[in-house]
Amino acid sequence: MLSKKEKPKEMAFAGHPEITIFSDWCKSCGICVAFCPKEVLAMDENRRLFAKAPEKCIACHMCELRCPDFAINVEEAKSLTEPGKEKS
Ligand code: SF4
Ligand code: SF4
Question: Which of 50, 62, 72, 73 is deepest in the core (most CB within 10 A)?
């Protein structure tokens, strides 16, 4: 079985807490959207989860804690990464 580390990252944002959504595991239940206190998360027209306002994330980890499928991960910002470049 693949570990979470081996899953491809769907989206990652730098300069603020890094939000990673594992779309293979996300069942679009919306729990994380409902529990996020800063309205960072949203569903698109296809009920695909995305971070609509990642700059508002306060890294409270409510989305991680409430997700029944371990499909979202938040890490505190450590350094800025230029768009399109992988972190080393
Ligand atoms: S860590 Fe908190 S503020 Fe950030 S997306 Fe998750 S629930 Fe929202
Ligand atoms: S709580 Fe988990 S499974 Fe549900 S929408 Fe959020 S990331 Fe996807």
Answer: 72
Reply yes or no on whether the pLDDT at 36 is more than 70: yes
65: three-class secondary structure by DSSP = helix
Residue 83 banded pLDDT, cuts 50, 70, 90? low
Q: Separation of 84 CA from ligand 1 center, angstroms?
A: 23
Give residue 16's pLDDT. 83
Helix (H, G, I), strand (E, B) or coil at 23: coil
Instruction: Kindly report the average pLDDT of the chain as a whole number.
Output: 83
Ligand 1 site, residue 26, Cβ cutoff 6 A: no
Indicate whether residue 19 lines ligand 1 (CB < 6 A).
yes
Domains defined along the chain, listed by start: 8-75 (3.30.70.20)
